Amino acid sequence: MLVSFIIPHKGRTELLEQTLQSIANLEFDQTELEVIIVTQNNTLDDLKHENTQFHLQTIFQPGDKTISALRNVGVRHASGEYLVFLDADIQLSPNWLHVMFDELDQHPDRVLVSAIQQCAPEAGIIEQIRVILNNTAADSTVQFLDGRDLFLKRSIFEKAGGFPEHLVTCEDYYFTNTVHQQGELYFTSKASYIHLGEDKSYAEMFRKEIWRGQSNLQSMRGRKIILRELPSFFMPLWQGVLLLLSIISLGIAQIDFAFFSLVISCLPIVLYTLRLYGIGKGRIQFLDALHFYSIYFPARTIGTIIGLFKVVNIS
């Protein structure tokens, strides 16, 4: 096989079926493709994949393994010269694979390529905000990439040592940052994907951001941290400490200090709201940006603190 798609899977089968259909719709010779689903869902026997010509393999794994472990298992069963790491809720544009080959093969210094996110037709405000934030670095080289759609040679993956199985989340940033030591990571707008599993409500977003924040600090170990990453690691702790000081000060009747600590703890929310409103260029209202970060930062603070003591799994 020329290309092996590695798809870790835990939950919703209907989204996985749409992901497989988008692979079947790729403008590429399907006989050169294999798809390896590494799943922790025992009900996957009823998976529908009609009208597909690629080779499909399903591997079942215990529920206690991380996403990284599932991806590494998939690679061990793969035969492709090129690897695609794809989430189980991604709809690729039909030209995706051709663009990936062009962007990788025409530039010798590049070792990994990924495409921009596109809004679904019925996208809500959370998805619209995510797309704006995710695409700010489009058509440029980057230090790390989100793990939803990654394309690279198998030899590069092996040199990088695979995904970090000790991380519950943030494994994609850790892995791509390691791959970056071998060459350029490129983020292209010539192809795209739709994130079918994007958060639809702020309640869902709050729950998932708690989970996503658990490996924030652990992902710093063993790799070089760039300057612009630091806020995402330390702002949750900043907020947590200041909120605690505010509560303690309120308990001992230090009202002025309690109010001051509360205001300072909200500073990241205000600054990031202004940044999002600016890069949104009229596509996002200020109150929507403020609402987003008023949910995001508290959830990340809770997740980071939880991650210091234990891991909470999410299905």
* Low-confidence segments: none
Globular, elongated, flat, extended or rod-shaped: what is the shape?
globular
SSE succession: EHEEHEEHEHEEHHEHHHHH
How is the biggest beta sheet arranged? Answer: 9 strands, mixed
Q: Distance between termini?
A: 32 Å
| SS-based class | alpha/beta
Number of strand elements: 9
* CATH architecture grouping of the largest domain: Alpha-Beta Complex
Mean pLDDT: 87
Helix content class: 40-55%
Total number of helices: 11
CATH superfamily of the largest domain: Spore Coat Polysaccharide Biosynthesis Protein SpsA, Chain A
Specify the CATH class of the largest domain. Alpha Beta
Quote the beta fraction: 15-25%
Q: What is the CA-based Rg, rounded? A: 21 Å
Oligomer: single chain
How many structural units, i.e. domains?
2
| CATH fold naming of the largest domain | Spore Coat Polysaccharide Biosynthesis Protein SpsA, Chain A
In short:
By secondary structure, the chain is of the alpha/beta class.
Any chance you could write out the topology, listing elements then pairs?
Elements: E1 3-9, H1 13-24, E2 33-39, E3 55-60, H2 67-76, E4 82-86, E5 90-92, H3 96-105, E6 110-117, H4 125-134, E7 140-142, E8 149-153, H5 154-160, H6 171-179, E9 184-195, H7 202-212, H8 230-251, H9 255-265, H10 267-280, H11 286-307
Parallel strand pairs: 1-2, 1-4, 2-3, 6-9
Antiparallel strand pairs: 4-8, 5-9, 6-8, 7-9
Helix pairs in contact: 7-11, 8-9, 8-11, 10-11
InterPro entries: Glyco_trans_2-like, Glycosyltransf_2, Nucleotide-diphossugar_trans
Pfam families: Glycos_transf_2 (PF00535)
Organism: Vecturithrix granuli
